[in-house]
Amino acid sequence: MPDAVRPPQPSELDQLPDRDPQETAEWRESLDAVTAHAGEERAAYLLRRTVEHAERSGLPVSGPLETEYVNTIPTSAEPDFPGDEAMESRITAWNRWNAAAMVTRGSRDGLGGHIATYASVAWLYETGFQHFFRGKEGADGGSGDQLYLQGHASPGIYARAFLDGRLTEAHLDRFRREAAPGPVEGLPSYPHPRRLPWLWEFPTVSMGLGPLSAIYQARFNRYLHNRGIKDTSGSHVWAFLGDGEMDEPESTAALALAGREQLDNLTFVINCNLQRLDGPVRANFKIVQEMESQFRAAGWNVIKSLWGSAWDELFALDTTGALVRRLREVPDAQFQTYATRDAGYIREHFFGASPALAELGRLVTDDKIVELFQTSRAGHEPRKVYAAYRAAVQHKGAPTVILAQTVKGWTLGPGFESRNANHQMKKLTGKEFRAMRDLLELPIPDSKLDDEIVPYVHPGPDSPEVRYLQERRAALGGPAPARKVHPVGLPTPAEKPFEALNKGSGSQEIATTMAFVRLVKDLMRDKETGKRWVPIVPDEARTFGMESLFPSAGIYSPLGQTYDPVDRDQLLYYKEAKDGQILNEGITEAGSLADFTAAATSYATHGEPMIPFYIFYSMFGFQRTADQFWALADQLGRGFVIGATAGRTTMTGEGLQHADGHSHLLASTNPAAVSYDPAFAYEVGAIVKEGLRRMYGPDADQQEDLFYYLTVYNETKVQPPMPEGDGVEEGILKGLYRFREADAAGLGLAEDAPRIQLLASGTAIHWILDAQKILAEQWGVAADVWSAPSWTELRREAMDCDAAALRGEQRVPYVTRALSGAPGPVLAVSDWMRAVPDQISPWVEQDWSSLGTDGFGLSDTRDEARRHFGVDAQSIVVAALAQLARRGDVKPDAVRRAAEAYGLA
Questions:
Q1: Which of 100, 119, 106, 90 is nearest to 171 (CA)?
Q2: Do residues 28 and 3 touch, judged by C-beta distance below 8 A?
Q3: Ranges for the Transketolase-like C-terminal domain (predicted)?
Q4: Which one, 69, 138, 404, 891, has the greatest CB density within 10 A?
Q5: Are 285 and 293 in contact (CB under 8 A)?
Q6: 301-324 as b/e, with b when 16 or more CB fall inside 10 Å?
Q7: Residue among 588, 597, 562, 593 at smallest CA distance from 577
């Protein structure tokens, strides 16, 4: 509408200088004239062309966030296909068949499996395996490409490994049969490196974690390269995702990071079959268009690969733009319906939307219409897929997302294709297998399909298909996916940093958080291993006293430091560098843990062992990102996880959601997490030293696939020296040792004084030390004080002893042996809920009781919070007297008198 009719609206452009207002007015008038005489679509097309030309000319303009619902790469611009398309079609057909057969055979035993996902995504994988995915036997030092494969598509990956000779029929029949005895190892349902460590690299079936991890893996590859650890310039990260999966918040949480850091070593391939697990992804909308806008806004290069070659004729016939208009307005759920209906329905409901479309529809046959809407998708055509992949790897300056449209369940027959229920459909009937055989043109006679059990098929190890497949993989650097570990043992660090903690802090009060940071700072100076430390922190480095690392280690930034920091004149200024060592991630625990995972598995991914430590606000570790910790365990990650500002009562004033009393309980459920709650600096040193030996020791064959979880405190205390005695370090590592006997405390107790054993972890050790003194001086009770750095490790060792007993091997648990003969009852105290220390109660022979911080956290001083939860020294004294009174060791009224005296009654 002309300006004379529609008054001009205020614009931010009004604030910019206009050197030639008359020229500006002429451009606006030209646009109005085109709109008036040629229509809105023509005007919009001209604008798009102008912006596109400007972008390609290097002018600083922003293109549209959403483009038409057509392929980004026109057919005329597609490169020549470099492979033998007929051969690759046969290879893909064999894989499709065996994937379906494997799941169907497994369904006899109720094991299930997923068929429809791989059926839709097969060509997206096969084109990559034949032409793009680099293996670990290439010239890049063993890194290859990193492949994040859709978990539900795993049967297809197993089928390809079968064709390649890496798996046998016996393996395929062990799909989802990992525990039952058999002639070969079982195949896990999804990509699980811990279960099948020679094949899988990255666990992806916990949807949303794959895309997040892939971004940080690509970023970590650049980190290794920029720091001079390894040349990773030849590695490309490929993440295969479902369009429904992109609804998970983790899926899109780091898109801006990838765009901001220009990670052109990363490609997302999103299988847009328009279906999630139980129905359409965007029933009334268009998921492809939505994702295009989202990725473009985050700075990604977007390639839409939607329509197969059968659509070329129809697009050529569309001289009015009616087809493009209609494709853009039809919602996804309707496209799903089109893929299952006959030509008459499509003519009525699609082409009947306008006279121009109806005329277009009359130009094509019914068979052509069925082909267009039921089978012709770009994701099912290797030439379309190859064009998209080549464009992705050649694009520089930004990560790429390929939005590839497919039909879920494609080639499985009308009972599967585009059906809402196909995620839950686990097998094909004999009739469906025959139809599939005919469609794929496989040489399988009817006689082979007469049995109840559908056969696996293989063209033979010397067949042209297998030779072609193996030759292509050899040219690309060997088999894929593949996980290979080249054992590298790191030298044992010098003793000096640990000796400093063993000496204690003298009269200085320091927190165990600071003790850990000082230790790592010293270890990072080690000439042999110092460069391998990877400090990771989600934006609170100063909270944890890590600012001293800023100027010495530097904060990693691929751009270096492009500004003059505000604190440049200070000693501990904020220093960013391209080769910086610290990963300061901002306020994102999920991103930080994804970084940690990439670093923690670098020993396998790149053959370069790195030593990450991820330090975080304790409450926001296992509670917020427990799923990622399980994926870390699955991926066999190694490193140190530090829950700082730990415990429910040390966080003064922070309140309910910041007061952590349960992380150790959550961590105890993760079999790969070696959990400790150290009380003193020397305990921290002993635990870190042992962790380095177990995870990174000089004898690479003895290295273990686990990670250490330590909780440290921000409460400053005088750190004592390590007690003398041969059993102290062993007790620290096993989880329990006697720190101070009542008699050794010099409290002047009678020989026949009532006796009790007080156990504590973390900061609670100071409460029971105070209680020990009060019990002796005011109540004549002798209390031995024990430090329990790990309730969880004590429990695990005891459970191992129980399991051994069932095999006829008699072993006494360490906790039982350590407390054996200790007189009196046992009272355990911690800054965690009671269930944490209660883990060991079945193996304690003495009368057992515990105190903890069950319930919600609150805001108050430490003393008041501990009084509220009943874990301060006076509350411990009353609880100890109550235990002794039940045994008759003290008079019953002692409990009442103590409670009244301490204001607890």
A1: 106
A2: yes
A3: 737-872
A4: 404
A5: no
A6: bbbbbbbbebbeebeeebebebbe
A7: 562
Alpha-carbon span 763 to 481, nearest angstrom: 46
Q: Where are the beta strands (DSSP E) in 474-630?
A: 509-510, 533-537, 555-556, 576-577, 583-584, 611-617
**Nearest CA to 366 among 391, 345, 340, 394?**
345
On the 0-12 / 13-18 / 19+ scale of CB atoms within 10 A, 699 is exposed
* Confidence (pLDDT) at 632: 98
Q: What is the pLDDT of residue 415?
A: 60
Q: What are the two backbone dihedrals, phi and then psi, of residue 675, each rounded to the nearest 5 degrees?
A: -105, 135
Is residue 258 within 8 A of residue 218, CB to CB? The reply is: yes
Confidence of residue 191 (pLDDT cuts 50, 70, 90): very high
Confidence of residue 804 (pLDDT cuts 50, 70, 90): very high
What is the spatial distance between Cα 202 and Cα 210, in angstroms, rounded to a whole number?
8
A 10 A CB-CB count for 702 gives 11
Contact 641, 708 (CB under 8 A): yes
Q: What is the pLDDT of residue 96?
A: 95
Q: How high does pLDDT run on average in the chain?
A: 93
Interstrand relation of 576-577 and 639-644 (parallel, antiparallel or unpaired): unpaired
- DSSP H helical ranges for 378-503: 382-394, 430-440, 464-475, 496-502
Closest CA to 156 of 186, 183, 134, 187: 187
Q: What pLDDT sits at residue 867? A: 97
Closest CA to 247 of 284, 213, 280: 280
Closest CA relative to residue 148, chosen from 202, 221, 209, 220:
202
854 contact partners, CB below 8 Å, separation of at least 6: 661, 833, 834, 869
Q: Which two tokens stand for residue 382?
A: 């290797």
DSSP bridge pairs for 404: 271, 305
402, containing H or E segment: strand 400-405
Q: Identity (one letter) of the amino acid at 852?
A: G
Phi and psi (nearest 5°) for 806?
A: -70, -15
Instruction: Return the structure tokens found at 16.
Output: 């910019």
Phi first, then psi, for residue 404 (nearest 5°) are -105, 120
Nearest to 613 by CA among 577, 634, 637, 635: 637
**Look-up: residue for tokens 């515990």?**
850
Residue 900: how many CB atoms within 10 A of its CB?
Answer: 11
Task: Tell me how crowded residue 652 is: count the other CB atoms within 10 A of its CB.
Answer: 15
Cα angle 512, 515, 520 (rounded to 5 degrees) comes to 130
How many Cβ atoms from other residues are within 10 Å of residue 856's Cβ? 11
- Match 């496989």 to its residue by tokens: 442
Residue 503 contacts by C-beta under 8 Å, 6 or more apart in sequence?
721
User: Is-contact 879 866, C-beta < 8 A?
Assistant: no
Provide the terminal-to-terminal Cα distance of the chain, rounded to the nearest Å. 82
Per-residue pLDDT band for 517 (boundaries 50, 70, 90) equals: very high
Per DSSP, helices labelled H in 710-749 are 727-734
Note whether 81 and 127 are within 8 A (CB). Answer: no
- Alpha-carbon dihedral angle through residues 192, 196, 197, 198, given to the nearest 10 degrees: -130
pLDDT in tens, 730-777: 999 999 999 999 987 677 788 899 999 999 999 999 999 999 999 999
Give me the DSSP letters along 661-697: SSHHHHHHT-TTEEEE---SHHHHHHHHHHHHHHHH-
The enclosing H or E element of 401 equals: strand 400-405
Taking the CB of residue 724, how many other CB atoms lie within 10 A of it? Answer: 6
State how beta strands 611-617 and 583-584 pair: unpaired
Q: What is the 3-state secondary structure (H, E, C) of 448-495?
A: HHCCCCCCCCCCCCCCHHHHHHHHHHHHCCCCCCCCCCCCCCCCCCCC
Within a 13 Å sphere around the CA of 166, how many CA atoms are in the beta-carbon half? 19
If pLDDT is split at 50, 70 and 90, which confidence band does 6 have? low
Angle at 254 between CA 249 and CA 260, to 5 degrees: 150
